[in-house]
């Protein structure tokens, strides 16, 4: 079979995705500070020059890697609204997504690494804060859409709900990641689902 020739844009996208994947693996293994551009390029199968033809710095790559994860999360949330399901089906899918997303531990640990770097580096903090705000704004909009679609009034402003639900998810992921024997998957999902039912659905009977 003849080899398919990629367009210049496809080739560049492939290079960037390989660099993203290599960076994610190395950041998780060594930490952002200890990882070098050379480490990332070598693991991806490219040269240092290929790295800098796609990213201005290691920090820029890291922020775009976080954005890639953020866009993946938003795509999952959009899919819930695009399927045209009934209220009960949509509520069940939203609840399942929120209560089980903590299982994506690799990306969660990347966000933890980014928070540490933002605390140390004011320049990185600017870009990271922008990324966090975009995540909260998108989550806020989906909460509004969910409320309008199913006809459930919100007990708090959507901005406050988004902030609280994201913070709770982060906290439970942290507890599960570092103490899984005490904070089991069953307990994690029960806490997330219980809070979501009470706060978003207004279900006072939720356990």
TrEMBL record:
InterPro entries: BetI_C, Homeodomain-like_sf, HTH-type_TetR-like_transc_reg, HTH_TetR, Tet_transcr_reg_TetR-rel_C_sf. Residues 13-73 form the HTH tetR-type domain. Residues 36-55 bind DNA. GO terms for molecular function: DNA-binding transcription factor activity; transcription cis-regulatory region binding. The keyword Transcription applies. It comes from the Bacteria. The keyword ATP-binding does not apply. Keywords: DNA-binding, Repressor, Transcription, Transcription regulation. It holds the Pfam family TetR_C_6. This is HTH-type transcriptional regulator TtgR. The gene is ttgR_1.
